[in-house]
Write a structure and sequence with these properties.
The complex is a heterodimer of chains A (424) and B (483). Chain A is built from twelve helices and 16 strands. With 424 residues, chain A is α/β, with parallel strands linked by helices. Chain A folds into two domains: 113 residues, Urease, subunit C, domain 1 (Roll); 279 residues, Metal-dependent hydrolases (TIM Barrel, Alpha-Beta Barrel). The N terminus of chain A is likely disordered. In chain B, the strands form two sheets. In chain B, strands 1, 2, 3, 4, 5, 14, 15 and 16 form an eight-stranded mixed β-sheet that branches. Chain B contains twelve helices and 16 strands. The chains are: A alpha/beta (424), B alpha/beta (483). The interface between A and B is large, with 51 and 55 residues.
Chain lengths: 424, 483
């Protein structure tokens, strides 16, 4: 790997003005997530931010900076489909969190794009472990609607948020029931009324009229969901609630639901597949953590995927998604240990989440036309002992450094007698 | 909170117990306990002693036969690795470990070729049973958050043995776990060390002879909980004042008992002090019989706690969470204090902000005692993977740590820190046969525990649903038998 790292150092030096750069990642075991499958001893060429060639026989252009994978694995960047990266810096410090607003008069209209901080330190923490893209979602405040989610990349550049208003997040689980006033019927009544308000926008709000459930501003924000232009990401776990969600989608075409949670999803797997509803699950969620999740199982991922459901993996709720989205490969590896074929598990942390959010033609695969999000690993990426040695986002190599690695380097040599604060 | 301990019946129990509950052998206990909080003065039966074991363990190992696990890669938990190794289990104990062992007659022979054999995983920080699944309000029994000093409460009195979390932990190879009260209070109460076995009562799970522990908590949690109520402690300095005031009371209490015992043993007609449950526990710490397990994140706060332990003459056994242990391995080593940590949790509060992935490996490699812990009903199921991450990150940072050395973080280090290191935590002749057979290298994501033995009894078998415990709670539920 030394060879690779030195190659990368050269790459970083040359990359100074950014843009218009060509990189060739050579000697890799390349996971394409396309019909080409996994290709050994292959090369990936990235030019001006995009992938232009992938294959065992791909030519290395003369002007390319070579990154030698030295036999390691080369994959698309990981896509974390359910996170709060850049919305929370310190969980228990309210002054550093922008995921929820229980005291706001608004709900659906709240847009995480206005709270996202590309300088949040966990972007780097997650980036150096292979996470290059993520969906970020709001948390619920005073009703079942949390607000509008967005899509980000993890470079930390000012324009890291590359798509806003990508979905609306709503909670119809036990927690949503409490938010709605105390019961599931209350939560579903609110959702039905809110959807009706959105469909009635703006006519219903003429003069001084208000909606049945939503104010004017929130109803406007829900309209794209009612029209099926962006998905409604719905937190639901219990099998009965999943069936109710399926019926809700059937009754409200062209509205499109994505389920987040689905800890009892395997009990409803065939119906979910039939309804073409994708799910985002935490494959490690196996405890009956609430009366919503009594059938939680490590087999959930395999059973859902066997039934033909589109499944993406997340780290929440067993690891927080603003800090430890980086554990995604461990979660996927455990799905493999519990019966999911490796390719399907890897797809569940790359291409499938990209597809769920409508960007599967740009992210989540290594093929010409895709963004140059490439990760070079020192081993099987789903092995807990493996780690990235290089991460490219939009064709640019990242510094493999975070606030955590800086702290590590400050303290690793206890025999150094330089006062700690002077070690940088 | 207080009760008068003047029952004559208590006196008869003193020979066996004193405050040293750290041995299952009554003779040892008597010698350890001599002169501590009552000791054993022999003839004067009417001297009042403190009953240190009113809820005794009723744990009995399940019947077991002779088992030879043959031809696996054996990690012994104390730094040894044996290729093509054998482990022989007889009478619930490790009878032999080595290569080419003869199979005794009637032995069940397990072919472990291509698989790994390790000591059972020990989690030094769990809330299974006191914060069980499902997480309902009726079972939220981990924090007696009604006043900052509650050394009088005992976690075992909150443990619900039907928590389905126990069986999930077993599937992850956990054979022993230490259940603590939560961290809302400065003194949260006593912790308890349990065997991970099916039982109708918590007494049926208690690790025989394991010493009691005291949970203490540093930092944000106590000051947030009480400060938000306009009560002390509201600050870090309030925390320190709260501990110190309690240790002063405990010292006085200990002195009053010693004065009483000395006078009574001299034949004087004296009344015993009024027994105080809270101070009984703190006195047990001052006497060295109860082990301090302290929640503490920051390096500077750990340093203050270690100074305080010298101020009052007691030992901190382990700092739990210890997110900044990597900053002070020399101080920890100097004070002989261990650090029990996560592999990679952080960011959830300010005192967890300086988390690094190399914490465990750096703390260990720089000379302090370190180990993994879960503090989590999900994390406890994969502590082998948590160690794998810490080990790999440490190696990437240039630290030279072997696979076998790292297994100590999962077994012998927590066993030592719980005072049961001469009973379990390693595969040595005479030790309890707490053994896991893994499907492959346990540092691989793809590996799972195939079989788990506790005291030589096969307690879990991944391929045999008859040997997979199911709690009362899960019977008749949609997830019954799910793993």
């Amino acid at each position: 790997m030394k060879q690779l790292i030195s190659a990368l150092t050269v790459g970083l030096t040359l990359a100074a003005p950014a843009a218009a750069q060509t990189y060739a990642v050579t000697n890799g075991r390349v996971v394409t997530n396309t019909e080409a499958g996994i290709i050994d001893n292959a090369t990936v060429v990235v030019r001006d931010g995009d992938i232009v060639a992938v294959g065992a026989g791909a030519d290395v252009p003369d002007d390319a900076t070579v990154i030698d994978a030295a036999g390691g694995w080369v994959t698309p960047g990981l896509f974390a489909g359910y996170t709060q990266l850049g919305l929370i810096e310190v969980g228990l410090e309210d002054s550093t969190t922008d995921d929820s607003a229980g005291d706001s008069p608004f709900s659906v209209a709240l847009d995480v794009a206005d709270g996202f901080n590309p300088a949040g330190t966990y972007l780097a923490t997650n980036r150096i472990e292979g996470i290059t893209r993520a969906a970020i979602y709001p948390s619920t405040g005073h009703n079942i609607f949390a607000g509008q989610g967005a899509l980000i990349e993890t470079s930390g550049n000012p324009d890291s948020l590359f798509q806003s208003a990508s979905f609306v997040f709503v909670d119809l689980s036990e927690r949503g029931a409490r938010r709605a006033g105390g019961s599931r019927p209350a939560a579903w009544a609110f959702l039905e009324a809110a959807l009706s308000d959105a469909r009635g926008y703006p006519g219903r709000f003429s003069g001084d009229h208000e909606g049945d459930a939503l104010n004017r501003y929130d109803a406007a924000a829900l309209l794209p969901v009612a029209r099926g232009r962006v998905p409604l990401v719905m937190a639901v776990n219990r099998a009965a609630d999943l069936r109710r969600a399926i019926r809700f989608q059937e009754d409200n075409a062209p509205l499109q639901i994505v389920i987040a949670g689905a800890s009892e999803g395997w009990m409803v797997a065939d119906e979910l597949a039939e309804a073409d509803i994708p799910v985002i699950i935490d494959p490690l969620e196996d405890l009956p953590s609430s009366f919503d999740s009594l059938a939680a199982s490590l087999q959930n991922a395999a059973r859902l995927q066997d039934a033909g459901v589109d499944v993406a993996y997340a780290t929440a709720p067993t690891a927080d998604g603003y800090f430890n989205a980086r554990l995604l490969p461990q979660h996927a590896g455990n799905a493999v240990a519990n019966g999911v074929p490796w390719n399907d598990a890897f797809r569940a942390i790359t291409l499938t989440p990209a597809e769920i959010y409508g960007v599967g033609d740009r992210y989540g695969a290594l093929a010409p036309g895709y963004a140059g999000d490439v990760v070079v690993w020192d081993g099987d990426p789903l092995e807990v002992m493996s780690a990235p040695v290089a991460v490219l986002i939009d064709g640019e190599p990242s510094a493999m450094e975070s606030r955590q690695t800086r702290l590590r380097d400050r303290y690793i040599n206890i025999t150094d007698d330089t006062p700690y604060a002077y070690r940088r | 909170m207080t009760l008068k301990a003047s029952l004559p019946a208590l006196a008869a129990m003193t020979a066996a117990i004193a405050l040293a509950a750290c041995s299952s052998d009554p003779d040892d206990a008597a010698s350890n306990g001599s002169g501590s909080s009552g000791g054993n003065s022999g003839s004067q039966d009417d001297i009042v002693r403190v009953n240190t074991d009113p809820y005794p363990s009723t744990y009995e190992p399940q019947p077991s036969g002779i088992t030879l696990i043959r031809g696996g890669t054996v990690l012994d938990g104390i730094g040894g690795e044996i290729e093509n190794g054998d482990v022989l289990i007889e009478n619930g104990r490790i009878a032999a470990i080595g290569t080419g062992l003869e199979a005794p007659e009637d032995a069940t022979i397990i072919d472990a070729a291509g698989r790994y054999v390790t000591p059972g995983v020990i989690d030094i920080h769990s809330h299974l049973g006191d914060y069980p699944s499902p997480g309902v309000s009726a079972h939220s029994d981990g924090n007696e958050a009604t006043q900052p000093v509650t050394a009088e409460v005992w976690a075992e009195h909150s443990v619900w043995p039907q928590d389905p979390g126990f069986e999930h932990a077993l599937a992850g190879g956990v054979t022993t776990l230490h259940v603590l009260p939560g961290s809302a209070n400065l003194f949260g109460g006593r912790g308890i060390t349990l065997r991970n076995v099916s039982a109708r009562t918590v007494q049926g799970m208690k690790f025989p002879g394991a010493p009691y522990t005291l949970k203490m908590a540093c930092g944000e949690n106590p000051s947030r909980v009480y400060g938000s109520r306009g009560q002390s402690p509201a600050t870090d300095m309030g925390n320190m004042a709260g501990y110190r005031a309690a240790w002063i009371r405990a010292s006085d209490y200990r002195d009053s008992w010693h004065e009483y015992w000395e006078a009574a043993e001299d034949g004087e007609d004296v009344d015993p002090p009024t027994q105080d449950l809270e101070l009984d526990t703190l006195m047990g710490v001052l006497e060295g019989d109860i082990l301090v397990q302290q929640h503490c994140y920051r390096a500077d706060q750990m340093a203050q706690i270690m100074d305080m332990s010298e101020e009052f003459g007691y030992q901190v056994t382990t700092f739990h969470h210890a997110v900044e242990a990597y900053k002070i391995p020399d101080l920890l080593a100097e004070h002989d204090v261990c650090a029990a940590v996560w592999a990679d949790w952080g960011g959830f509060k300010m005192e967890a902000y300086d988390s690094v992935r190399e914490n465990l490996a750096m703390t260990h490699a720089n000379g302090a005692c370190a180990m993994i812990h879960s503090d989590d009903a999900n994390g406890i199921q994969r502590l082998n993977q948590e160690v794998a991450k810490a080990l790999a990150d440490g190696r990437r940072a240039g630290l030279d740590i072997s696979d076998a050395e790292a297994w100590a973080w999962l077994s012998s280090a927590p066993a030592q820190a719980l005072g049961i290191g001469d009973e379990t935590g390693s595969l040595q002749e005479g030790y309890r046969a707490d053994v896991v057979l893994w499907s492959g290298n346990p540092y691989s994501t793809y590996t799972r525990a195939d079989q788990v033995w506790i005291d030589g009894a096969l307690s879990y078998d991944r391929r045999d649903t008859d040997i997979q415990p199911v709690s009362d709670f899960m019977l008749g539920q949609p997830g019954e038998g799910e793993q």
